Structures are given as structure tokens and as C-alpha cells.
């Protein structure tokens, strides 16, 4: 089960403050954090050296070198391993992201060079003026920039090649460069254990007072134990169990010491019924969230939209995301059903932003999809509501073709209905007027048919935007599909 972390600033009772305006506990953290950091840095260097790491041997060395006990040394090793693993993962993600950008740039370069080559080939023909097809990239001049579109494209190709060379060299360097790990100042980390009282041997908290076992190197200055009043972690839904392991992390942020406790949460009572009784589907977009509730038979019962404002500062956007998640939670409580969302990866789309338009790039960059999913999952899990993630393949196309005109839905609401039905394991077959026309072999998955239909729709002249789907009735689909499929018969 996943862990949860609660954070709270250490209080500063007036009766505990010294002449420097700190409590004894805070003064101990200030004195102990440099020792911890030095031990963590040495452990990180040992982990990155390439030699075989023996945890037991290194634990003994850290105890003797820094005069701390075994539990403190376990925290040092755990913190160092976490920092190293995080640095390695960030390096891999960085290389993967640069590789995606390189692939997108190479695809753009290949298409642009072909476009320019085909255009030159067209104008080399003797009777190109009498051509019925015309040129896909005609030669034209811009009054504003005083050059032709061919010159502009050659200029873009030149700089794209420089960009590709820069990316290639950067990826080669990152694959061979040493991993650098940044160890922050002013932090203390203590690993918990479920066999110990209060879930931790060194740092014990009874709900009101926190008591810390002082390492040997600081016993003369602070005594054997330091303690302070911490109080409870104020949460509307507190999932911290009485028993179980509790790992403590103290760090300095915004001129205050913060206590963070990590634990395995106790289970909550499930408030949502099994998905066979119905589900709420979500179609998440940067400008709005479309939702639709379908019953046990897969029929639409209610639908709506949750508007989202773009271009907000970080704090306001976080508040907007939390507010939207709470609205979804209220809907799930109202219908007592699970929530179905699409399992998307916006990372691949963001790798192609350089080759997209400015408006699309700005819209996608300002949208925190992963942040929204994390907050939604946390809010729903705290209230016993199941969250199901499904593959969103062809969900928008299915909604536009089947449900937009049938129910009079917006395109995101229609896609949300498809998501809810997909979470319920209900199949989405082609409309009866279209079944005979796409060339799909028997025995293949139903998505194969939607894939063929998608290719046919892209070649239609009758559908240029999503609003055109509202004007097509079921009886009219046959007249649109048949002319496109007859030449393949």
C-alpha cells in the first residue's frame, strides 16, 4: 500500500524559547543537521564510487565516524540512497525527454525537406500550369517579411539542423557524465520500524509530545533526550494509525522547522459501490472537465462540465484543481459509484511543443495533468471512492460518432460517457450504418474498426471540425462512408 506524509511546522511555546528565540528541540536540530549532512554526503560518494556497497559494514563505519547509534545511521543510509536513486531517475527522465524532442525534430525535418523537394520537382515540369492537382507547397511571397515561403522554410530547416546537432551532443554528454547529487542543508531523517513503540525507536510521538533520542556526539550539550510539544496533525480525514512504522523527516523551510511523518495509512470504508452498478467518466482537458454518469446498463443518466481557467498563477491553479477534485468527489458520493479517468501521458505531447503552434504550446504547458491526477487520487482514496484508469484510445472519436447527436452532448461529455462505459467493460461497436464499410478482418479487436473509420473520416470533405458531427444523423453516415470505401472494394 502507498504511504502518506503529514507535515506540520514545529510550534514555539513561549516557555520553551531561549535567548536566541529557539526552543531546545530546534537548537538540537540546528546542531545535528550539519552532522547528518556530512554523513549523507560521504555515503552518497561511496554509493556513486562504483564499489560494492555493504549496508551493514557501512552502518558500523558511520556509527564510529560520527558517534551516532544504529538507528541514526539507518536514517543516514536511507536518505543517501533516496537522493542517489532520485538523481539517477531524473537523469534517465532527462535523457528520455531529450530523445523525444530529438525524434520530433527529426520527423519535422524529414517532412519539411520532402515538402521542399516535392515543390521543386513540381515546378520543374514543363506544363505545371495545366496541372489538375496543383502544388502542395506553392511559391509565394510575404509582403510583411519580404521573402518567399521557400526561403522561410529553408531558414527554419537550417536552424532545425543546428538544434538537432545540439540535442545529439547533449544526449551523448549526459549518458557519459557523472551523476551529481545535491544534498540539502538543515534536515534530519529517521527511519521508523513497526516493531518499535510508537513506530520509531529514536523519535517517538504520543499524539502531543515528540521525544528525540540525542546521538552520542551531542549528549554532553543536550542530554540524552530532547522533547517539545507538537500536537496532532489537523486533518479532516486523519488516516494515521496508532500502530505501524512512522518515519520522521525534519527540514527547515521558510524560516521554520517542519516535522513530516510518513506512514502506511489505515484503510477506509469503501463508499462507492462496485463498478457494475454504474460509473462516472471524466474527460480531462486544459479548459474544462467533462463528466458523465451512466447506470448499470451503460445508459447516460446525467452529465455536465467543470470549467477551468487557464493562465493562473501556481497557487490559484492549485486551488482551482483542488476545488474541481472536490466537485468530482461530491458527484461520486451522490451516485455512490467509482470514477473512471483516462490514463494519459502528456510528456510525449510536451516533447513536441517546439514543432507546434504558440497557442497550443502555451495551453499545454500551463496544464498540470499529473498534478490533477495526484490530487484527485488522494482526495478520492481518503473518502473510500475507487479511481479506475483506462486506456483512452479512440474515446473522442467514439463519443463524436455515437453519442454527440444521440444525447446532444458536448464533445468532452461524450468522451466522458465512453470512458465510463469502458471502465464498466462495455464494448463500443461501430454504428449499424457503418459496420459493412470499413475494411476490417473478422476476429480482430473492435478498436481495429475504429482505427479504419478514423482514417476514412480524416479524408472526408464533409467533416472539417467537431461541430460538423452534430449535423450528421445516423441515416446520413452511410452516404458519407460508402463513396470513400467503394474504391477499395
Description:
- This protein has 489 residues and is an alpha+beta fold.
- It has 13 helices and 14 strands.
- It has helices at 24-48, 55-66, 70-123, 149-176, 219-222, 314-335, 346-350, 358-365, 369-382, 395-407, 411-423, 446-458, 474-485; strands at 4-9, 141-142, 147-148, 187-190, 203-205, 209-213, 225-229, 246-253, 256-263, 278-284, 288-295, 300-307, 339-342, 387-390.
- The chain has a five-stranded mixed sheet with strand order 12-11-10-13-14, with helices on both faces. A four-stranded antiparallel sheet has the order 1-9-8-4. A three-stranded antiparallel sheet has the order 5-6-7, covered by helices on one side.
- A hairpin with a 3-residue loop joins strand 5 (203-205) and strand 6 (209-213).
- It is globular.
The dominant shape is globular
User: How many distinct helices?
Assistant: 13
Sequence of secondary-structure elements: EHHHEEHEEEHEEEEEEHEHHHEHHHH
- Count of spatially separate domains: 3
Task: Describe the sheet with the most strands.
Answer: 5 strands, mixed
Helical amount: 40-55%
Task: Estimate the mean pLDDT confidence.
Answer: 86
Low-confidence segments, ≥5 residues, pLDDT <50? Answer: none
Give, in spatial order, the strands making up the sheet with the most strands.
12-11-10-13-14
Helix and strand content put the structural class at alpha+beta
Q: What is the straight-line distance between the termini?
A: 55 Å
Report the radius of gyration as a whole number of Å.
30 Å
What fraction strand?
15-25%
List keywords for this structure.
single chain; 489 residues; alpha+beta; Nucleotidyltransferase, domain 5; 3 domains; 5-stranded mixed β-sheet; 4-stranded antiparallel β-sheet; 14 strands
